[in-house]
Structure formats: structure tokens, C-alpha cells
Design a protein that fits this description.
With about 350 residues, the protein is α/β, with parallel strands linked by helices. The protein has twelve helices and 14 strands. Helix 1 links the parallel strand 1 and strand 2. The chain starts with a strand and ends with a helix. The relative contact order is 0.17. Bound molecules: 3-isopropylmalic acid (IPM) and magnesium ion (MG).
Length: about 350
Amino acid sequence: MREHKIVLLPGDGIGPEITNVAKVLLEKVSHKNGFKLIFNEQLIGGAAIDSTNDPLPEETLNTCKDSNAILMAAIGNPRFDNLPRNKRPETGLLALRSALGLFANIRPVKVCPALIEASSLKPDVIKDVDLMVVRELTGGIYFGQPKGRIKTERGERAFNTMTYSQEEIQRIATVAFQLAMNRKKRICSVDKANVLDVSQLWREEIEEVSKKFPAVEVNHQYVDNAAMQLIRNPSQFDVLLTGNLFGDILSDEAAMLTGSIGMLPSASLSTDGPGLFEPVHGSAPDIAGKDKANPIAMVLSSAMMLRIGLNEHSAADDLELAVDNVLKEGFRTSDLSNGAYKKLTCSEMGTELLKAV
Ligand code: IPM
Ligand code: MG
């Protein structure tokens, strides 16, 4: 029987609740499709700081390196907000992305017909939305040197550096162009080339790479304009390619087109090692432990893991279909419910999804 080694990283906040839902579903679809998933649960983020004083313990990193795919739920906890950067939950995730070379972050944003009225935008504006954010994930201002805080005669000063090399830009652009070839063959590259040198290089390199993909139509938007276009006319986008910081911001904005950030999955990929699959949303400390979270982004991340990370397409189809069917039947978690629907807790949603597989 085919076997795949999966590292589960429940992390913080609502992470453990949505991981429980995903794990049971993964067990069912793997059984149904004739393969075996070997789960290994590890600590990351605030949960790891609490028990090991390190947001990315060595055991977690080594287990991830030795796996076929990693499924992470969420990290972050306001309890750690005032700690030094190396003792914050987010640092664990950034270190994991960097150590595994997960430079390509892919965030598909597709409006589900059953949820059109859950969006804060008009149905007409969002009905045809089907876009993919391709975000560079291991460079840019998140990792640029120098960075830090220094004391000066006139008080403290803090700085980060937004930097990209030609090679980093070409590598992520190539991923985006390849994805575009299997979609509507349109790329919008987002930068701030009217102000930033790093963006000027970005734009030049995108143009360079585009010469190898003449079938793909490329346009460039400044990030401020792109933010506006995303809510003005989001269906103009097919592949939206951008750097680390702009991608972080625009993908949250794009998520809301689908009605709730609780719906959006993502994949972070390297050139050859295991991929990391995680919801776009965070740990939602305000509702953690209350069984209120929407597990769908986690379930769809599990589907992405099956499809992209493990080549188990039919099991991935099963999960995606279950999500569609449950939504069609009118089941909603509270982030999606407007009173007219059957409002479920996180675990009840898990039960409905399990019935639908
Ligand atoms: C994301 C998150 C992370 C990021 C945080 C948790 C470090 O917001 O994956 O979008 O900024 O990349
Ligand atoms: Mg983010």
C-alpha cells in the first residue's frame, strides 16, 4: 500500500480544533482511496515556546525535513506580543519556511457559488472570481539584512531591508508563469516600481522571464492600485504574482472576496523537498477553544496537500467535493452564517464533512 509521512503542526489558537477535523477526514479519504497516511504531530509557535522555549524546536524541524508533506494549522498568540523577536510564535513559522526553502506560496481564491452572498462585496463584482496569488515567501523585507533596532543619540531607531536578487525573482516568476500556462494565461505582477529600487529590478526580471512564456500575457500594477483593483474588479486577475510583504497583505484582502478568510487554503513549495500546507487565516485567539472556528480552509489545505504534495488526486477531489456539498446543503459556521442557515460549530462541521465524503 502507498504510504505518506505527514507532519501535523496544530500550533496555536484554533489550530488544534481545525486539525482534529482535518485529521479524521484525511484518515477517511486515505482509507477510501487505498493509501496510508502516517501522522506525526509536532510543536510549533506559541505551543512550542510554552513547552520548549523555542518557536521551532529542532525535533519539529528534523521531523518536517524527513516527511513527505507538512500540514500546519495556525500560529500566534497575543500573550507573546511583547517578547523579543526570537521568542515569538511567528518566528518559528518564518524559520521553518526558510529552513525548508519554501519560496513559492500559492493561494487560490475562488468564489464558491453557495457563498456569493456571504461576501461583503456585491454578487456581480465577485461572481467570476477565480484567481491565484503567487507570493514569494523566503525573501523580501521578511528576511532582508540588515535589520534590527539600534540606540542613537536621538532615541531608538528600527529598520528592515526590502531586498531581492535576480535569481530569487526569476525563480518565483517561473513558478507563476508555469501555473498561468495551465490557467487563463494572464499574470499581473504587483510591485511599487514608481518608488522602490527593489521593485524596479523585480519588474525587469519579470519581463525577462516572460520572454520564455510568450503565450502568457503580462501586466504590472503598483501595489496601491492592485489593492484597489482587487475590490473594484477582482475578476480581471488570473495569476497575481508578488513579493513577500505585498503578497501577505493582498492575499488577506483577496480572501475576503470569498466571504470569509476561513475558506482559503495555501501551499508553500520548495524546489524538491516536502511542501507545507496551511490555511491563510491565523490562530484567531478570540474564538480559540470555543469550537466556533471554520475548519474549511484547513480541509481545503489538506486537499491541496493530497493533490500537490502527495499526488493523491482522487482523495483531494473527495475532500473538495465534500466541502462543496456541505455548503450547498446550507451548513455554515458562524463566520459564514447570516442567520438564514444551519449554523454549526467547528466539530459539527467536521461531522457533516465526514458524512459527505
Ligand atoms: C501568513 C501569515 C504569516 C506571514 C505570519 C503568521 C508570520 O500572516 O502566512 O500570511 O506574515 O507570512
Ligand atoms: Mg498573512
